[in-house]
Amino acid sequence: MKTAILAGGKGTRLAEETTIRPKPMVEIGGKPILWHIMNIYSYYGFNEFAVALGYKGDYIKRYFVEYGTLSGNLTVDMENVEPVRRHEKDHAPWKVDLIETGDETLTGGRVKRLKPYLGDSTFMLTWGDGVSDIDIRKLIAFHKSHGKLATITAVRPPARYGHMRFQDDKVVAFEEKPQTTEGWINGAFFVLEPQVFDYIEGDMMMFEHAPLENLARDGQLMAYRHEGFWAAMDTLRDKHNLQKLWDSGGRPWAVWE
């Protein structure tokens, strides 16, 4: 089963970082968040990816070319026809299709443009800026159990601000950014059947809007409720929060460690 990752957006709310690189290449712990996302899937045995490129897509291409050829120990023999010899492989066993999907294409259009690379079987899809400790095996098992075309992961993200707890009007405790207990949001980490492509009409369609809405209307969209950790890196503040978690050793999404 292949995993599609959307990595073509401009990341305007993270402009401090994305003026020089695409958002999926913004680093947490010295590695692009895209690397973190791929490691989540790889931990569960899913090592084939189709990455939808757009804004500064060449940056991502260069990263993977170097990741696959320059990692680990090397010997450089200038007199040899093939001057670089690798001693061992020091990287994940990934096969990555890097597909140009246009600078201005919206999320639905990017998904549709990946169709030739995803085959005619069940595939997974996520965004290139969100991490989670989701159990991919359980997600897939849930998808297979209901027989519908699409599964979306529903999450309750951490609250943006701390909460106060009261007894009548007296403040009795402060809670530092607890996980919200009301409402569920789209956490990506989809499992999809190829018929979902029929719900996407063209490049200028947001996958989060008409396709998902119409799948829900047709009774073909099911929600896998993930109660654990989930976070998206939309802003510089989000990036700093993830970096703080990484530095403290509290890395709930790093299931591969």
Automatic annotation (TrEMBL):
One MF annotation (Gene Ontology) recorded for this entry: glucose-1-phosphate cytidylyltransferase activity
InterPro entries assigned: G1P_cyt_trans, G1P_cyt_trans-like, NTP_transferase_dom, Nucleotide-diphossugar_trans
GO biological process: O antigen biosynthetic process
EC category name: transferase
EC number: 2.7.7.33
Keywords noted in UniProt: Nucleotidyltransferase, Transferase
Entry superkingdom: Bacteria
Name this protein carries in UniProt: Glucose-1-phosphate cytidylyltransferase
NCBIfam families tied to this protein: G1P_cyt_trans
Domain Nucleotidyl transferase: 3-201
